[in-house]
Amino acid sequence: MAETLIEAAEPLDPVYAAEREKRPVYSNEDLHLLVLQLILSLLLNPHKNSVEKRYYPTEAEAGQKLNVPFVLQCHVNHPGNSKLMPVLHERAKAMGEGVTRLVKLTVHCLFQHELYFNRRRMVAGAFGTVYTCKPPYSDETLIVKLIDMPKKEHDLPLLQTLFNEMTILEQFKGNPCVCQLYDYGVNEEYCYMVMKQYRTSLKSWRNRQTAPLEEMLPLYIWTFGSILDAMQLFSDHKVNHFDIKCDNILLEPLKDDMPDSEFWDSSHGSPTFSVVLADFGESKVYNSENDEHTYRNRGTEFIMSPEMISIAKARYKGDAKYDRRKRSGAGKASDIWSLACLFYEILTGDFLFYDDIWPAFFCRVTVEGQPILKPENIEKVDENPEIIALLEFMLVRDPQHRPSLKATRQKFKLLFGEMLSKYPRMDTQTQRH
Ligand SMILES: Nc1ncnc2c1ncn2[C@@H]1O[C@H](COP(=O)(O)OP(=O)(O)O)[C@@H](O)[C@H]1O
Ligand SMILES: [Mg+2]
């Protein structure tokens, strides 16, 4: 005990030190570590791919349930306990990837945030701020995304969300279709995500295209086809993205060091990039059909499926039935809806269901009988019958009747296979998965 106090990094507050001495858990370092290991292993769900729900409050339960991640975070980052952290980290590694991830997302001293001090703000996203940064150890410019950490016990816990995002990114390490995460960690202020820098987002690329749809059509169709292929990877690994839109798709030049002039030149109609899926802040890994649904509304409103929007509405209204409607949350069918919205966004640069008036948007998406495509939407896609057919095929309001990804890809191939036969890249993309 006395030894621990002497070796602590900073002198401890005498009142705290006296109280600490009374607690048996601090009398033996090994016992202390074992208790922490026990808490960490309980914090992981039995599938080891998520944080166990019973230990943190959801938005609806805020203040009514012990926020274990917050208490644990206070404990492990206290100066009196910091000495044990490197040992805890080693033990966590022996316990597996899930526990290691929990430790990295909880213990501050394991991450060298000073390396990313000199950074330049690139964009403030919905959930974090993205910076470019050239840390001293790297020749490459990297991307650092900073997400605000909860500061108070009653702030909404973030551990679950961050854990999900890191799990997915680590699962797809080395896969060219998924944004590459190099490192991550936390301090009092932020969670840091250090990633590979991609050339641009599909949103920015699309915004710069000025040629008429007719001219760009094969390239746009090819781009969407590549995204459908990449999504298959997710479906195979039981991951729902829940936030599919042009902003969250990044583009990687087809060859290293491709100059910007070549990258941005789409006048010849052939792709200069491959697509990379990014931003898993809303995503969910599921274990079975029963578990794949989410009861939180995730993602950007205008690309949300009817079932996702209904979740948001039920929550606002405090609908008593909301939590008990077991299988009516949003699942993988929700991504199909968003993919159709993305298809329209690639083709036109606009959100299909955008409306200034929220109730009008809500009715259009959720009320059966409302036309899915308005005359102006049809006009914007040049009244192209194949495009209209694919949009109508995918945009089925009832998730039970919405086509699967497999059926969508088959339909896509049927409608656009011939157009894309001139594109050798399309096959290469498919073979990668
Ligand atoms: N690795 C990256 N390379 C290049 N741009 C990126 C990268 N990650 C994010 N961005 C840019 O930052 C934006 C926001 O990042 P994102 O991960 O989607 O965060 P948010 O959760 O805030 O939406 C993206 O739309 C994209 O333009
Ligand atoms: Mg995003």
Folded structure, characterized:
By secondary structure, the chain is an alpha+beta fold. The protein folds into 3 domains: 97 residues, no CATH class; 84 residues, Phosphorylase Kinase, domain 1 (2-Layer Sandwich); 232 residues, Transferase(Phosphotransferase) domain 1 (Transferase(Phosphotransferase), domain 1). The protein is 42% helix and 11% strand. The strands form 3 sheets. A 5-stranded antiparallel β-sheet has the order 1-2-3-5-4, covered by helices on one side. It is globular. The N terminus and C terminus are likely disordered. The site of adenosine-5'-diphosphate has 20 residues, from strand 3 and strand 5.
Give the CATH architecture of the largest domain: Orthogonal Bundle
Bound molecules: adenosine-5'-diphosphate, magnesium ion
Give the radius of gyration: 24 Å
CATH superfamily of the largest domain: Transferase(Phosphotransferase) domain 1
Overall structural class, as computed from helix and strand content, comes to alpha+beta
The order of strands across the largest sheet is 1-2-3-5-4
What is the arithmetic mean of pLDDT? Answer: 87
Please outline the helices and strands:
Elements: H1 2-7, H2 14-22, H3 29-43, H4 68-76, H5 85-95, H6 97-104, E1 119-124, E2 129-133, E3 142-148, H7 159-171, E4 181-186, E5 190-196, E6 200-201, H8 202-207, H9 213-236, E7 239-240, E8 249-253, H10 260-263, E9 273-277, E10 284-285, H11 306-317, H12 332-348, H13 358-366, H14 375-380, H15 385-394, H16 405-420, H17 424-431
Adenosine-5'-diphosphate (ADP) binds next to strand 3 and strand 5.
